[in-house]
Specification:
Elements lengths: L1 E6 L1 H4 L19 H4 L2 H6 L1 H17 L4 H10 L4 E5 L5 H5 L5 E2 L2 E7 L6 E3 L19 E4 L9 H9 L1 E7 L11 H7 L3 E6 L9 E4 L2 H13 L5
Helix pairs in contact: 5-9
């Protein structure tokens, strides 16, 4: 038995990284069909790569916040599977271990021809060759709309044996992640949502507020640490 944590854009919002659905967030200023689909990449790779270059620069300038650091503390002390929908590296930079990136990683590049992955440069040029097979057209190693998220077998196995499922900073609207709470409940786990606002009544317990306040307080409860 253990804890499964799912984090979303709300975890990183207070680090200055754009959220997915909030009004004025980075995604609201772009047509998702143009920058977050395989078809958009095929139509205009330069536009898509430029968008992700800018996001990569934004990520490099950001810093982990108190919520990231609290989850990093937790990952080293209890049986926890730390799943994130975020493509940023804030959890790793905070010291978290073995983060499961179900939507890929902004800091990595992917070859669609052979499946090779490598550290992305600051600027990923259109037609950049794969270092493994030489095929042109390297892309960001992120899961776009219409593509299957990564590590689903591992995530579902962890949910099946979880005693506690915690959702942090996610809207609960995008599947398959939106269905994780139901899988956890079916397995007998207690379910807890930590979010600015409740996402809709599917959790046994809900705490509302900013991640930088809620997450450290909850982690202190779990670990028995004195409040910070």
């Amino acid at each position: 038995m253990g804890i499964v944590i799912l984090s979303g854009a709300g975890l990183s919002a207070e680090s200055g990284l754009g959220t997915f659905r909030d009004r004025g967030g980075i995604w609201s200023r772009y047509d998702l069909a143009e920058v977050a689909t395989p078809e958009g990449f095929a139509r205009d790779p330069a536009k898509v790569l430029g968008f992700y270059d800018a996001r990569r620069a934004n990520m490099a300038a950001a810093r982990p916040n108190a919520a990231h650091r609290a989850l990093a503390r937790l990952s080293g002390r209890v049986d926890v599977t730390l799943v994130t929908q975020n493509v940023d590296d804030m959890l790793e930079r905070a010291g978290a271990r073995d983060v499961v990136h179900m939507h890929g990683e902004l800091a990595r590049a992917l070859c669609a021809a052979c499946g090779a992955r490598w550290d992305a440069p600051k600027v990923l040029a259109p037609g950049a060759p794969c270092p493994a097979c030489g095929a042109p057209g390297a892309r960001p190693d992120v899961v776009w709309f219409g593509e299957m998220p990564y590590h689903m077998d591992r995530i579902e196995a962890a949910l099946e044996r979880a005693s506690l499922f915690v959702s942090i900073g996610t809207s609960g609207e995008v599947y398959p992640a939106a269905g994780f709470v139901e899988l956890a409940r079916m397995a007998g786990a207690h379910t807890l949502e930590l979010n600015l606002e409740a996402s809709g009544g599917r959790f046994a317990e809900v705490r509302e507020g900013p991640a930088t306040a809620l997450v450290p307080a909850w982690v202190d409860e779990v670990t028995g640490a004195a409040p910070r």
